[in-house]
Amino acid sequence: MAATSCFSPSSTFSKLISTPNRSSNPTFLPLLRRANSVSSSFGLIPLRLSDGSQSSVNHIIKNAITIDSPITSSSKNQNGTLSSTKPTILVSEKLGNAGLELLKQFGNVDCSYDLSQAELCSKISQCDALIVRSGTKVTREVFEAAQGRLKVVGRAGVGIDNVDLQAATEFGCLVVNAPTANTIAAAEHGIALLSAMARNIAQADASVKAGKWQRNKYVGVSLVGKTIAVMGFGKVGSEVARRAKGLGMHVIAHDPYAPADRARAIGADLVSFEQAIATADFISLHMPLTPNTSKLFNDETFGKMKKGVRIINVARGGVIDEDALVRALDSGAVAQAALDVFTEEPPPKDSKLVQHENVIVTPHLGASTKEAQEGVAIEIAEAVIGALQGELSSTAVNAPMVPPDVLSELAPYVVLAEKLGRIAVQLVAGSGIKSVKVVYQTPRAPHDLDTRLLRAMITKGIIEPISNSFINLVNADYVAKEKGLRISEEKLLNDSPPESTPVHSIQVQIANVQSKFDSALSEKGSEISIEGKVKDGIPMLTCIGSFDVDVSLEGNIILCRQVDQPGIVGRVGTLLGERNVNVSFMSVGRTIQREKAIMAIGVDEEPDKDTLKKIGEVPAVEELVFLKL
Ligand SMILES: NC(=O)c1ccc[n+]([C@@H]2O[C@H](COP(=O)([O-])OP(=O)(O)OC[C@H]3O[C@@H](n4cnc5c(N)ncnc54)[C@H](O)[C@@H]3O)[C@@H](O)[C@H]2O)c1
Ligand SMILES: O=C(O)[C@H](O)COP(=O)(O)O
Strands 621-628, 556-563: parallel, antiparallel or unpaired by DSSP? Predict the structure, then answer.
């Protein structure tokens, strides 16, 4: 659907309450999990459930958003014993043993290396998670082939340029990486290449092995006192800078986003791009491959460099225009290059760049130390397992980060938010929903209340009952936009003490629609308006239109508006009882005594249409609606 199109719930009752078939498509709530402090941030905050039991925040939030089945579920097999359905994790490139062991304890691990794209696409619909390194191209085609089952892609390393993040987001698939464990390995490889290039180690080694003794040919250049420009002063770049300082080099760095104090602490000068390339004797590349950095090093930029500059690349091949580099090497503008990464990997056998006598190469070995590979494997295994369990890794690259403390305090409101969304959409009759306004009453200053999670849950509640989309924190905003649904938020200051609760109430308003339950319209009559609160840890519906109610949001609810008079509760209860529909609670809210009242009836079973019709025919009942929560 185009972004400008209108979001149209079906007018039919049954369609409004139906949920898409997601049996092969269980979603998860990505929650934040700090590396190395796995669940320590969770599980400590007990919440009272409506049945009086207690649960952890983690449990509550996961249940609040899990759609059909948890990813690890139990079911009875033919002989009646319980069997566990473990998630399937496809590992498509070599991963360290420690990580594999962790994965095997949690799921079924399929290590299938060197898959063709077609093989990957055919396997992926059987997999809940995919773990890759830089060699697997996780394209849109892969997400399409997954048919909604793939919930997380784990990149066992830093660069995620081989994963189509846009497609992942559209399909609600979380992408996590392992950004820290190979930093030192990559930096050490950069320094190894720098030294090897400066002293012609690779060429001299080949020459000796070929039976030659060419001491005059392989005279090198010294590093001490030379200027090295570190392009991209992130994790690897700053470690390279630190090591280059140790070699007695003058270190300058260019990075539009790096804080100057980090550079200062290492003794590097942050300079402009032009200054860096114009003054450096060595240029070491450490930026990610993005549309902005693609072929950043080209004929023009090589032309601005100091003649005879030496280039090291352990970042991504695509940041260099490789044909331009060959020209620069041929002309002597660039004296030497040391490359670990290539635009195409492996590069073509006849690559002029690889074969160039002034170029030394390694086959993308930057991260390949035993230590780094074990570290990366553990880092990614933990992130993927966490994601499959409903947590969001702190290394998620396509989902907003919600800090653990924010998560803890918002946990009960997550349930409330989704249910309010579900109720609001079921109150709409016929025409399309274009805009939803959410009003949070909060004792906090607006910037102190992070509502992204709540907004995502309201969106989920609104969209899921009436479409095939499934929503999670990863794709909520994207799907809403795609469906032409505008969600605006307002935070109103409430005078309850700030420490008591982060959110006093949440109101969901849907404007410019007709309601199938007129009493849900606000006093002005222009919008459907419902409000909820969390009371003692339990999500409650507290207001419908202009009626105050106090309804626990569980099971299914029949809402009736009637003329307030004795006997109605009994009559409706009898009708339900006769049809074996169990009532879990009843609550009546009225405006003025003996005038209009709203009765909310919690029911365990879904009453059939005839039962609802009979309730509607009870004298004094003016309108009713059945809501599935
Ligand atoms: N060869 C290997 O095996 C290997 C191993 C690890 C990392 N890498 C690659 O090294 C690169 C850096 O990794 P990292 O872990 O340091 O990532 P990082 O995110 O910590 O650092 C990247 C830095 O590049 C900066 N940057 C972005 N655009 C820039 C631009 N136009 N000009 C200058 N700087 C820019 C960012 O601000 C950031 O500080 C990535 O491309 C990664 O994929 C390669
Ligand atoms: O981005 C990275 O982490 C490195 O390029 C390592 O890639 P690899 O996992 O394929 O060795």
Answer: antiparallel
State the Cα–Cα distance between residues 417 and 403, nearest whole angstrom. 19
Token pair for residue 524?
A: 């002005």
Residue of higher predicted confidence among 495 and 625: 625
190 CA to middle of ligand 2, Å?
13
Q: What is the ipTM of this complex?
A: 0.99
Q: Cα 112–113–116 angle (5° rounding)?
A: 100
In the structure encoding, which two tokens stand for residue 379, read together?
């880092």
Q: How do residues 83-129 score in pLDDT, each as one tens digit?
A: 458 999 999 999 999 999 999 999 999 999 999 999 999 999 999 99
The one-letter amino acid at 272: S
Q: Give dist(CA 7, CA 3) in Å, integer.
A: 10
Q: Is 345 a catalytic residue?
A: yes
| Cα-based distances in Å from 575 to 71, 624, 625, 629 | 40, 14, 16, 22
Examine the residue annotation and report whether 357 is marked as an active-site residue of this protein. no
| Atom nearest to 161 CA in ligand 1 | 43
CA-based nearest residue to 523, from 587, 462, 589, 591:
591
Which ligand has its closest atom nearest to the C-alpha of 317?
Answer: 1
pTM for this one?
A: 0.74
Strand order in the sheet with 282-285: 269-270, 250-254, 227-231, 282-285, 309-313, 334-339, 359-361
List residues near ligand 1 (CB under 6 A): 158-159, 179, 182-183, 186, 231-237, 254-258, 286-289, 292-293, 314-316, 340-341, 364, 366-367
| Separation between Cα atoms, residue 5 and residue 16, nearest integer Å | 19
d(CA 162, CA 316): 11
| Cβ(498)–Cβ(444) below 8 Å | yes
Whether 326 and 353 have beta carbons less than 8 Å apart is answered as yes
User: Distances from the Cα of 268 to the Cαs of 87, 237, 258, 259, 359, in angstroms?
Assistant: 47, 11, 12, 11, 27
> Residues enclosing ligand 2, CB less than 6 A?
133-135, 156-159, 182, 364, 366-368
